[in-house]
Amino acid sequence: MTAEQLVLVGGLWLDAAAWDEVVADLTKQGRDVVAVRLPVHAGATLADQAAAVLAAVDAAPGRSVVVGHSAASTLAWLAADARPDRVAKVAMIGGWPRAGGQTYGDFFAIKDGEMPFPGWAEFEADAADLDAAARAAFTAAAVAVPEHVATGVVTYTDERRYDVPVVLICPEFTPEQAREWLAAGDLPELTPVKNLDTVDIDSGHWPMLTSPAELAGLIAAL
């Protein structure tokens, strides 16, 4: 049986190149892997980005495992909602999906039609494993999020998404914390999921940059 395609979706401010080392490692393992290039042109919308993920899923000969990082956990979950028969599993790294009716990711100031990277003061607790050089490289490569992506309203249509297995990969928080949030009802889109697992990774919020080999191993095991 053909192994599932792996579809990797980066979070806010990341382009597909952020996955390069992970993709290289998975490719050496013989895996079929695609890092999605999300549209970030002026005027791009949340629907445009969701469509880019679906295009990767639809192009696969079989089913896909969709991996979303941080805010893009929502994009991965939207793919499961739109293609519950084509998405074999969803993995969410350092994040979880927004609930229906919420905005996608307008967490920081929007200026001139986009939400730029706000700087490291907002992420000190999450970026302890990024040294000065890595932070400078991240900042230089950061892609501003189009306003209509950040402010796009999340809409789900198919409850069969809850039949799709989910794995939470936990970087700057622990699996135990994730379970506590689930039990408290703080992750409402994941509460109805019938098959949910948690996996730990010893890293900050961006393991594709700081622990790519370990992350690739976890993704391959999905």
TrEMBL record:
A GO molecular function held by the record: catalytic activity
Record-given protein name: Esterase
Source lineage: Bacteria, Bacillati, Actinomycetota, Actinomycetes, Micromonosporales
Signal peptide: none
Family matches, as Pfam families: Abhydrolase_6 (PF12697)
Residues in AB hydrolase-1 domain copies: 6-216
InterPro entries the record matches: AB_hydrolase_1 (IPR000073), AB_hydrolase_fold (IPR029058), Sec-Metab_Biosynth_Hydrolase (IPR052897)
